[in-house]
C-alpha cells in the first residue's frame, strides 16, 4: 500500500511539473521584420528559464496537424498579411474554441485583414505608423503579470502602430501618451497592450517588438514573459 502511494505521488509530481508547449509562428506574406529571428531566440531562452517548450515554425500546415492540440499557446510573432488558408483558419478557430491560447506580438495586428473572427481575437487592426521613436507608455493596469514590474510610466523606443477596429471587449494594460511623440492617430485612447478571454480561449497582445533591440530590453522581456504566463494560466 505504501509503495502504491509513493507511485501515485510521484505521478502527480511529474504531471504537475510538466512543461507547457508553445508554438511560435512567424510566417509573413507582407513586410518581414528583421527582429523575427532574435524574437524567436528570446522566447526560446525564456522557455528554458521558465519551464515551457518552444517550437518555431513558418509552415501553416502545422495548423492541420493532429499535434496542434498539444500546444498550450500559439504565438504570432510579427506575422504579416494573409498567412492562413480557409482550412487552416478553421483549424485555428477550433483550437481557440477548445480552450487554446493566443499571443500576438507587434505585427500580429497587421495580419489576416479579411478574416473578421481573427480581428476580434487579436483585438484591433494596424493602420499605419510614424517613424520609430521613443514614447511614454502609461501603465493602465499594474496587476497583470505583464505589467507588475513596471512603474506608472514606461519610456520605450519602438515603432508605434495606429489602430482601427479596436474591440470594445479588450482589457487595456498599456496605453500610449500621444503627446510624447509625433504621429499618433488614436487620440486619448491609444492602447498598445491588452488581453481578453475570447470564444473559448484567452489572448494577449503587445504592440511592441518591432526593433531588434527590444528583445534585449529586460522590461520588454518581462512584459512578454508575463503575457506568455497569463496565456498559459500560470
Topology diagram in text:
Layout: H1 2-16, E1 20-25, H2 36-50, E2 52-57, E3 73-77, H3 86-97, E4 101-105, H4 116-122, E5 125-128, E6 133-139, E7 153-158, E8 162-164, E9 171-177, E10 191-198, E11 201-206, H5 218-231
Report on this model:
- The chain is of the alpha/beta class and 234 residues long.
- The chain has a single domain (21-231), classed as Rossmann fold, CATH 3.40.50.880.
- 27% of the residues lie in helices and 27% in strands.
- It has five helices and eleven strands; from the N terminus they run αβαββαβαβββββββα.
- Strand 10 and strand 11 (201-206) form a beta hairpin.
- The two termini are 34 Å apart.
- The model is unreliable at 4-16 (pLDDT under 50).
Features:
234 residues; 27% strand; 5 helices; alpha/beta; Rossmann fold
Amino acid at each position: 500500500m505504501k509503495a502504491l502511494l509513493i507511485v501515485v505521488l510521484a505521478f502527480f509530481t511529474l504531471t504537475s511539473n510538466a512543461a507547457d508547449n508553445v508554438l511560435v509562428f512567424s510566417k509573413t506574406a507582407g513586410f518581414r521584420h528583421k527582429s523575427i529571428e532574435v524574437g524567436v531566440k528570446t522566447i526560446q531562452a525564456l522557455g528554458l528559464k521558465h519551464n515551457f517548450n518552444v517550437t518555431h515554425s513558418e509552415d501553416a500546415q502545422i495548423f492541420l496537424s493532429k499535434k496542434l492540440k498539444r500546444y498550450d499557446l500559439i504565438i504570432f510573432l510579427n506575422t504579416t498579411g494573409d498567412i492562413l488558408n480557409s482550412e487552416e483558419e478553421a483549424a485555428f478557430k477550433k483550437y481557440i474554441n477548445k480552450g487554446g491560447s493566443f499571443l500576438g506580438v507587434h505585427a500580429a495586428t497587421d495580419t489576416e485583414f479579411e478574416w473578421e473572427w481573427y480581428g476580434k481575437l487579436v483585438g484591433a487592426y494596424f493602420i499605419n505608423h510614424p517613424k520609430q521613436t521613443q514614447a511614454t507608455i502609461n501603465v493602465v493596469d499594474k496587476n497583470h503579470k505583464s505589467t507588475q514590474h513596471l512603474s506608472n510610466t514606461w519610456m520605450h523606443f519602438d515603432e508605434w502602430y495606429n489602430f482601427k477596429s479596436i474591440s470594445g471587449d479588450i482589457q487595456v494594460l498599456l496605453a500610449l501618451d500621444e503627446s510624447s511623440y509625433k504621429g499618433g492617430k488614436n487620440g486619448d485612447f491609444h492602447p498598445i497592450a491588452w488581453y481578453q478571454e475570447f470564444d473559448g480561449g484567452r489572448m494577449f497582445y503587445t504592440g511592441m517588438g518591432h526593433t531588434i533591440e527590444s528583445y534585449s530590453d529586460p522590461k520588454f522581456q518581462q512584459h512578454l514573459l508575463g503575457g506568455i504566463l497569463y496565456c498559459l494560466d500560470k
